[in-house]
Amino acid sequence: MKKAAVLGVGQTRHRSKRTDVSMGGLCREAADRALADAGLTMNDIDAVVVGKAPDLFEGVMIPELYLADALGAVGKPLLRVHTAGSVGGATGIVTASLVQAGVHRRVLAVAWEKQSESNAMWALSIAHPFSVAVVAGAGGYFAPHIRAYIRRSGAPSHIGAMVAAKDRRNGARNPFAHLQQADMTMEKVLAGPLVWDPVHYDESCPSSDGACAVIIGDEDAAEATRQSGRPVAWIRATAMRTEPTMFAGKDPVNPAAGVACAADLWRKAGITSPIDEIDAAEIYVPFSWYEPMWLENLGFAAPGEGWRLTEAGETEIGGRIPVNASGGVLSSNPIGASGLIRFAESALQVMGKAGEHQVPGARTALGHAYGGGSQYFSMWVVASTP
Amino acid sequence: MTTDVAVIGFAQSTIGIRDDSTTGGVEMLSPLFREVYAQTGLTRRDIGFWCSGSSDYLAGRAFSFVQAVDAIGASPPIMESHVEMDGAWALYEAWVKILTGEVDTALVYGFGKSSGAELNRVLALQLDPYLLAPLWPDAMSVAALQARLGIEAGLWTEKDMAQVAARSLASAVSNPRAQVCDDGASIESLLARPYVADPLRAHDCAPVGDGAAVVILASADKARELCQRPAWITWFGHRIESASLGARDLTTLAPLGPQGKPVEVAELHAPFSHQELILREALAPSVTGETEVNPSGGALAGNPMFAAGLARIGYAAQAIMTGRARTALGHATGGPALQQNLVCTMEGRQS
User: Fold this and answer.
1) Is the predicted pLDDT of residue A130 greater than 90, yes or no?
2) A242 touches chain B (CB under 8 A)
């Protein structure tokens, strides 16, 4: 496998309604920023990979057909990835593999969602033949699994609010984050309305319009980028895993697919003690309690112990394992883009370009995404050296 | 790219209005998985990577591909991905995955229940959502404009189109999984039939049908071990054209594929008869007058959306695996008026 590196990253300023741009304009904004970040133009790009959650979220069938012009893809190969909520991460991995396989030198990944064009709750709740309609949206689906986690681990009830307050405060350090809430506290989170027991309003992700773009290149392309005075983030390992939504033996609190994905990732990256070897983690946490749940699923803590890291402040910037220094999904959630934002933010950390939310001295970072009924996982490890 | 990759298995469902199948694809896919396992001797636990192609809009719901995973039996968890495109592009992603060296086998599937709604109108939602889709130009009307432009430019005639249809329907007689076939239709009788979207007649348009297709890929060592005559991939690539129907010449495509030596068999994904004529031009010199085109009957004999392109590559590979041809080409298309095109060429080798 050939070496691959992130050459540049771009994001939109995520908001609930980007009425100032079309879907094409939104994606182009992120792509242009990534190209500028890498010092490249569209002419330097060999292929484009687009990621997005269900087409029903905007009401456009296979929208990248229409986006081909805005993305500079005309006359080039264009792939559209869709793996539920993990799609942003899967988009990063497919893009990396095009370079790792030696098929292309520089590939542009763009993941996006413009939720204001349609209604995600509706799109997720359509009844279909021969299946039980959940009609719960995402929050209603995940809340029972969170309650099961609390019962199993014996975690105190305020842990989720601690995560939410931390992520919102981190988001205020990130100029691209949708929610800017520098003064958020655990008390304020707990004082808010309970939406899906035990998830309070501020423990849930927002609904955002936004796009993220990442340019991945081979060793020569990375060297050229470095020569122009720009740092790159080397992709040390990628991993993906899938399991069915429901089957006898499924553990939605600590899914086997996540455990297997993490084990594969750490093995490929040569990491034996994640908490000691990962300097910054961007983990897909759409509902606050998923921070301790995924810390365990990923192997940063033993089962039932993840909440102790959160409670001790170890997931803050400056802690043992800073989680979501960017503000995470709890601060911005353009669904299809959210996974790629995690991957991009992990790259920014090891490039030393995360600005106000930089984890000091970060050299190795994790990007993580999950989707469906906690059944799709995609992850990567990036580092400042190959 | 020095790693050799080959197609070693292929199965395609019977195409038609499948009342026995839901939009999730499980009922159509499960028997096909059994078929390719039997062909290769592999089991689901031997598959290194899974990749699929399908469309939520066809299914009328979000996450239709998630349900399809139930056909696999993905416990313990699998390495899997999905494209919102024809399964042919899933095959491309799987080919790339094998080239990275991470895995040595991949199972790729595409599925679509085209009859779930009014396909002709659903496909209008693939157009520019702000300026074109609100006018609901249906798929046949867009294709008819393309056909008309070519006729007026003197590039082809309605008779040329009828000849494509007659040959496809006659070839489909020997394909038990085709949706329609007819070995008795004369050009004159076809031209006497009414238009459905002038200048297109019913036989110029692919029938609406449900179906699925499955292909197994393997790296060099695995392919030699599991298959007597693997279909070795010699070229694999794809390209997208502008979405603006007025900004591109709809009657031609820039050269597609390897532009190498002629192939013996070509399976072209042309959902409308005139599109085969456009593709033949773009694929020259690979596809010549000597090339046997669409011996399966092609898309005009059965076009299960999001599976038909993958099936074209499967049929092309099958011609090599059965020893009927030494070289073959498979093509897939996506989007309106041949907007997106993929080409895979394969060859048989002396073992």
Assistant:
1) no
2) yes
> Does the interface predicted TM-score (ipTM) exceed 0.90?
yes
Q: Do A61 and B69 touch (CB under 8 A)?
A: no
A12 Rama sector, left if φ>0, alpha if ψ -120 to 50, beta otherwise:
beta
Residue B121 has pLDDT above 90, yes or no: yes
- From the list B50, B77, B83, the residue facing A80 with the nearest CB is B83
User: In chain B, pLDDT over 90 holds for what percent of residues?
Assistant: 92
Contact A129 B240 (CB under 8 A): no
- B285 close to A (CB below 8 A): no
For A190-226, b/e burial (b = at least 16 CB within 10 A) is: beeeebbebbbebbbbbbbbbbbbbbbbbeebbebbe
Q: How far apart are CA B227 and CA B150, in angstroms?
A: 43
Q: What is the DSSP string of A32-45?
A: HHHHHHHT--GGG-
Distance from CA of A3 to the nearest CA of B (A): 10
- Residues A178, B160: Cα–Cα separation, whole Å: 57
CB of A117 within 8 A of CB of A217?
Answer: no
Backbone phi and psi for residue B240, each to the nearest 5 degrees, phi listed first:
-115, 145
Which tokens in the block code for residue A322?
Answer: 């800073």
> Which residues in chain A are contacts of B102 at CB distance < 8 A?
1, 97
Mind listing the pLDDT tens digit for each residue in A284-313?
Answer: 999 999 999 999 999 999 999 999 999 999
Each residue's pLDDT tens digit, A342-369? 999 999 999 999 999 999 999 999 999 9
Say yes or no to pLDDT of A37 above 80.
yes
Q: Provide the shortest C-alpha distance from residue A320 to chain B (in Å).
A: 30
**pLDDT exceeds cutoff 90 at A125:** no
Q: How far is A11 from chain B (nearest CA, A)?
A: 23
Task: Establish if A22 touches chain B: CB-CB under 8 angstroms.
Answer: yes
Helix, strand, coil content of chain B in percent (nearest 5): 40, 20, 40
Instruction: Compute the average pLDDT of residues B303-323.
Output: 98
Strand partners, A189: none
In the block, which residue shows the tokens 């897939």? Answer: B332
pTM above 0.95, yes or no: yes
Task: Name the residue type at position B157.
Answer: T
Do B66 and A67 make contact, defined as CB atoms within 8 angstroms? no
Q: What residue ranges define each of the domains in chain B, with the CATH number in brackets?
A: 5-117+208-231 (3.40.47.10), 119-206+234-347 (3.40.47.10)
Picking from A291, A284, A293, A286, the residue whose alpha carbon sits closest to that of residue A315 is: A291
Residue B236: both structure tokens together: 């694999």
Q: How many residues does chain B have?
A: 351
A180 Cα to chain B: minimum distance (Å)? 31
Distance CA B213, CA B110 (A): 5
Q: How many Å lie between the alpha carbon of B190 and the closest alpha carbon of chain A?
A: 34
pLDDT tens-digit map of B26-66: 999 999 999 999 999 999 999 999 999 999 999 888 888 99
The answer to whether the CB of A162 falls within 8 A of the CB of A186 is yes
Residue B243 makes CB contacts below 8 A (sequence gap 6+) with A65, A66, A67, A68, A69, B127, B128, B335, B339
Q: B93: which chain A residues are within 8 Å (Cβ-Cβ)?
A: 79, 94, 97
Q: Which class for A183: exposed (0-12), middle (13-18), buried (19 or more C-beta within 10 A)?
A: exposed
Considering only CA atoms, which of A194, A376, A211 is closest in space to residue A287?
A194
Asked if A68 lies within 8 A of B80 by C-beta distance, the reply is no
Q: Which helix (H) or strand (E) holds B90?
A: helix B87-99
Among the listed residues A97, A138, A359, A379, the one whose alpha carbon sits nearest the alpha carbon of residue B92: A97
Instruction: Please indicate whether, in this complex, the C-beta atoms of A247 and B75 are within 8 angstroms of each other.
Output: yes
β-strand partners of A51: A81, A111
- Cα A367–chain centre separation: 7
